[in-house]
Design a protein that fits this description.
Layout lengths: L1 H14 L11 E7 L17 H8 L2 E7 L5 H10 L3 H4 L22 H7 L3 E5 L44 E7 L10 H13 L18 H30 L6 E7 L14 H4 E7 L7 E3 L3 E2 L2 H9 L24 E5 L9 E5 L4 E5 L11 H4 L2 H11 L5 H8 L6 E4 L18 H17 L8 H8 L8 H15 L3
Parallel strand pairs: 1-4, 1-5, 2-7, 2-8, 3-4
Antiparallel strand pairs: 2-6, 5-6, 9-10, 10-11, 11-12
Helix pairs in contact: 6-7
């Protein structure tokens, strides 16, 4: 009898992983956008027309409260491709594992493309517009953005486009779009403005844009925001071309399409931070079996994407996976979602957050450090250059000075995030909310313990990863590394 029970349990556990008949194997297509918040028409934005993402929402399900678990590219993407918290798998420091000390995934954790490929899907990652592919299996040239912090085999991708698949073979495709990064680099703002004018007949006028209330209406910031909105429009147009291609090829209605971004807009208090501007993202799902025109207000995390995709494909979810199939029958909505920010490039930090339906609690592990620590990547952006110049001239209003240029940070922050959209009013010190703060503090502690948060980066790993930055003709980076080491020695 005991042997029969073991056999029955084995059959249940393995049956979910067997490929389903070819006719029931949908294509899976993720559209992953860099550096972009939920600034689309279907999310209530009127600043940019986005008919194609709006169409996906109208024909599928839109999640209004979707959040990433990390507000910067590589930790977020490491979490996305595994369905795991980046803090659990040790991939939480931005651009880590790039030196001699490497990061290996824990036993039982695998990149999602490897699972799909083994099950017979053609796995690809690119821009979604290629009409043909010359790539052979295991040849990664031309692939779209990956940016994983752990060691991985490029052979998990068959090519850069689904055009290379076999007859009747389903595909798992990641369309990787630069999004907000379109405006990056020298002349980026002007370039986006030119492209938008050519594509839509008119670029967004800087004078017409609205900024967060704590940012000054400086010409540089206004021009950057206008270019960002044009990047939203250009991204939407690209999405439209991908959807039109699926339609032309007759596979749109047999393809699960998931649209999301890897974190929010890049500016002073958004990307790299755990406020809404950094972690709240668009999340739209369209495809077979997905409710049409539905709007979900429950809390979801971007690491739920793999579980949703594997379930739609009829494949089993790995036991270790922390993401959830939010469309599963009997699914119980999350009561809280979590996020973490750690080292970004050379800049050491550690921040954790827990968010419930009403509250956002943030814990700063380095409260003696300034809000805007020195960081060569961010400090080179025109918006940060302008803000630091205004700060040096004493031209910023007190609220902006406090939020951006405070020399220290509160150890804890507490916000009514739905009412306080920009998280301006920190209630952590208010005795009226002491019980709420204590409850959330305990909840965050439990999450960190239960998920095995790896915590601070070992000194050997930091030294290894910094070798990628040192000696590249960027003295500001080396100066920042020295500052990080000095502050650490001071216990700061």
């Amino acid at each position: 009898m005991r042997g029969f029970v073991r056999l029955f349990v084995w059959l249940i556990a393995t049956t979910a992983a067997w490929p389903v008949p070819a006719a029931d194997r949908p294509n899976i297509l993720w559209i992953v956008v860099d550096d972009m918040s939920a600034d689309f028409g279907c999310y209530g934005s009127t600043a940019a027309l986005t008919p194609h993402v709006d169409r996906l929402a109208a024909e599928g399900t839109r999640f209004t409260r979707a959040f990433v678990t990390a507000p910067v590219c590589s930790p977020c993407r490491s979490a996305l491709i595994t369905g795991m918290y980046q803090t659990t798998i040790g991939a939480h420091h931005h651009r880590s594992g790039r030196g001699t000390v490497k990061i290996e995934l824990p036993v039982g954790v695998r990149p999602v493309p490897a699972i799909f490929r083994e099950a017979g899907w053609y796995t690809c990652i690119g821009d979604g517009l290629a009409e043909s592919t010359g790539k052979s299996r295991g040849r990664p040239q031309g692939l779209g953005k990956t940016d994983y912090n752990f060691e991985w085999d490029p052979a998990i991708y068959d090519g850069e486009d689904w055009a290379g698949r076999g007859p009747d073979q389903p595909f798992f495709m990641q369309v990787q779009l630069p999004g907000g990064k379109l405006r990056d680099g020298p002349g980026g703002v002007a370039r986006v403005r030119h492209e938008a004018a050519a594509a839509f007949g008119q670029a967004t006028e800087p004078a017409a844009v609205t900024l967060p209330p704590y940012l000054p209406r400086d010409p540089v910031l206004l021009a950057d925001r206008a270019a960002y909105l044009d990047a939203v429009r250009l991204t939407d147009a690209h999405v439209g071309r991908v959807i039109d291609r699926l339609d032309r090829e007759g596979v749109l209605d047999e393809t699960l399409v998931i649209f999301l971004s890897d974190h929010g807009i890049s500016h002073a208090r958004a990307k790299q931070f755990l406020y809404d501007e950094g972690t709240h993202v668009p999340f739209v799902v369209r495809g077979p079996g997905i409710p049409r025109g539905a709007v979900r207000e429950d809390l979801v995390e971007h690491i739920d994407t793999p579980a949703v995709s594997l379930a739609a494909a009829g494949l089993g979810t790995p036991a270790a996976m922390q993401g959830r199939d939010v469309f599963a029958k009997g699914y119980v909505a999350r009561e809280a979602v979590f996020a973490a920010r750690d080292r970004c490039d050379e800049t050491v930090d550690r921040i954790r957050s827990v968010r419930t339906a009403d509250w956002l609690s943030i814990r700063n592990f380095h409260p003696a450090r300034p809000m805007l620590q020195p960081n060569a990547y961010k400090d080179a952006k025109p918006t940060l250059v302008a803000l630091r110049k205004l700060h040096a001239a004493g031209s910023l209003d007190p609220a902006t000075e406090r939020l951006l240029f405070s020399p220290t940070r509160p150890a804890e922050e507490l916000y009514r995030w739905r009412e306080d959209r920009w998280q301006l009013d920190n209630l952590a010190a208010d005795p009226a909310h002491a019980a709420t703060l204590a409850t959330l503090r305990d909840r965050l502690d439990r999450w960190m313990a239960e998920t095995g948060d790896r915590g601070p980066e070992p000194e050997a790993m930091y030294e290894s990863d910094m070798t990628v930055y040192v000696g590249k003709g960027k003295p500001e980076v080396e100066a920042n590394i020295a500052t990080m080491k000095r502050w650490a020695a001071e216990g700061k």
